[in-house]
Design brief:
Radius of gyration: 33 Å
Strand content: over 45%
Distance between the termini: 103 Å
Helix content: under 10%
Shape: rod-shaped
Length: about 250
């Protein structure tokens, strides 16, 4: 904006921010608007070389983001946006705490509303079976040009699912068998531990979902006494049962 003063000198006014005025009028740089200049002095007002520049705009303005478990064992994931600008879609992401940091994986996609200036509500259901431990959730937002933003992270704790496992016969003499019901495909490491905490046997197995019966590779010279049979599974608390060996 150039202003002609009493000394016949042009002065330049830069950086006039009309963003707030547009917001007050519920208008945005993506819509049509008019600027009106009113003369309030005795001398004329000369205007030259007007340039309007909009600053960088956020792809979305986030509203609420909530996660909650339901009685079916699923997780209801709800979020909202107050505004969206060229928003293509959302990705629902989840990570589990495996002591190696959080590695988020996308479990679902939800379409966005492109450009919108109203409140939009979204929902997704995490129906993965056998959730255990702590699961971390976030929403990834993707623009049409590939620009991304993220929500904050929410976490939800699940009780350890009950894996049915038993050893028979117990007490045992020479042979020992284990019945194991896997709730998903998984690797399990079996350890035989004595009362002093020493690991006497390590046996690793790969299970498909379902029931399994298998022999434990026991040492024939194992002394009589009490032992712990521990099952170690990635990302889950170890499970242990107590067994007793007796003499013939």
């Amino acid at each position: 904006l150039h202003v002609f003063d009493y000394n016949s000198v042009w002065s330049t006014m830069n950086g006039i921010d009309i963003t707030q005025a547009l917001a007050d009028a519920d208008q945005h740089f993506t819509t049509s608007f008019q600027l009106q200049f009113v003369q309030d002095a005795l001398f004329g007002l000369y205007i030259d070389n007007i340039q309007l520049n909009s600053g960088a705009r956020l792809p979305v303005t986030w509203g609420d983001f909530n996660v909650g478990g339901n009685e079916d064992g699923n997780v209801d994931i709800d979020w909202s946006t107050v505004s969206e600008f060229e928003n293509n879609h959302f990705e629902v992401q989840v990570a589990v705490d495996n002591n190696d940091g959080l590695d988020f994986k996308t479990i679902g996609f939800v379409s966005g509303h492109g450009t919108s200036e109203r409140l939009n509500q979204y929902q997704y259901v995490d129906s993965a079976p056998n959730k255990t431990g702590i699961r971390y959730y976030r929403i990834k937002q993707v623009d049409f040009d590939g620009t991304t933003t993220y929500t904050e992270i929410r976490q939800l704790r699940f009780n350890e699912s009950t894996t049915k496992v038993s050893a028979y016969p117990n007490p045992m003499m020479d042979d020992l068998f284990v019945h194991y019901e896997a709730q998903k495909e998984e690797d399990v490491t079996l350890q035989l531990i004595d009362l002093a905490g020493r690991v006497l046997l390590t046996q690793t197995m790969h299970f498909l979902e379902g029931s399994h019966d298998f022999p434990v590779q026991m040492d024939a010279d194992l002394p009589a006494g009490f032992y712990s049979l521990r099952f170690v599974r990635e990302g889950r608390e170890p499970k242990a049962i107590r067994i007793q060996k007796i003499l013939d």
